[in-house]
Amino acid sequence: MSDFSTQWLKVSEPFPHVFHVELARSPVNAFSSDYWRQYGKLFDALREAHESGTDIRAVVISSAFPKLFTAGLDLTSASSLGSSAADTSQDAARASLSMRGVLLEFQHAIGAPERCAFPVIVAVHGPVVGLGVDLISACDIRYAASNAAFSIKEVDIGLAPDVGTLAYITKITSNMSLAREFTYTGRFFSSAEAEKLGLVSKVVEGGRDEVVKAALELGKVIASKSPVAVAGAKHLITHSRDHTVAENLLYTGAWNGAALMTNDILENLRATKTKGVPKFAPLGIKSKL
């Protein structure tokens, strides 16, 4: 998938409809401003390609490096970012608004997987530091190798996490006591503790190769399902997270009022009857303009 690969992001299609995005900025996948902007643009490009007919049904994110997922934010880049965003020639309000604009752009980039109609699975191993927790929080499914170690590190720098962790953690985890402990202390916690927190859904014994294999196998299973059903389920789960039960039920009724007219239902019935494999059309429609 050289059309999607960039300087620090390798994109391949190891199985039909399952794309693999590998983080590959040497030596430790530290996120500079150019890197996180590149990350956000890649997922926006995948989303746009999917909407135009490219048959993407699942994406797996992993690190290309054998020893770690990411060391988090590139602190050298962060220092220059802060000094350029806060123009001391302006008053405090204008400087603050300038910094806010940068932070919102940062959040938008790291949150890009949530804007995709297809599920995004992240497979982590080794250290997952700071921004790495922000990044995985915006993904649909999180698998961890048994050697993974996480740290919500921002408190040790002197700030509260501001790119996604605190927005997501109360919605995607189930143990607020642990979430607060990890956030307030910045201490590393194991894959077993991450599973206890509810941050990851599966711990895979081993390291990078084992967890990536498991995530890709999951991607294959998801890719075999109706794209209409999977995309609708992702959209409705996210809607449910951010709305009341009553609001979500009303919205789901409107959504499925249209979605139930899909040919994918008939294709599933045909495949069941003939003991065959269902064949689904791409979700996106290529523009004729």
List descriptors.
Lyase 2-enoyl-coa Hydratase, Chain  A, domain 2, 289 residues, 3-stranded mixed beta sheet, alpha/beta, 11 helices, 9 strands, 14% strand, 2-enoyl-CoA Hydratase, Chain A, domain 1, 6-stranded mixed beta sheet
Q: Could you characterize the architecture of this molecule?
A:
The chain has 289 residues and is an alpha/beta fold. It has two domains: 215 residues, 2-enoyl-CoA Hydratase, Chain A, domain 1; 48 residues, Lyase 2-enoyl-coa Hydratase, Chain  A, domain 2. The chain is 48% helix and 14% strand. Strands 1-2-3-4-6-9 form a six-stranded mixed beta sheet, with helices on both faces. A three-stranded mixed beta sheet has the order 5-7-8. The longest helix has 19 residues.
Overall shape: it is globular
The helix/strand series, from N terminus to C terminus, equals EEHEHHEEHEEHHEHEHHHH
Sheet with most strands: 6 strands, mixed
User: Any idea of the CATH topology of the largest domain?
Assistant: 2-enoyl-CoA Hydratase, Chain A, domain 1
Order of neighbouring strands in the sheet with most strands: 1-2-3-4-6-9
**Portion in strands:** 5-15%
Number of strands: 9
| End-to-end separation | 25 Å
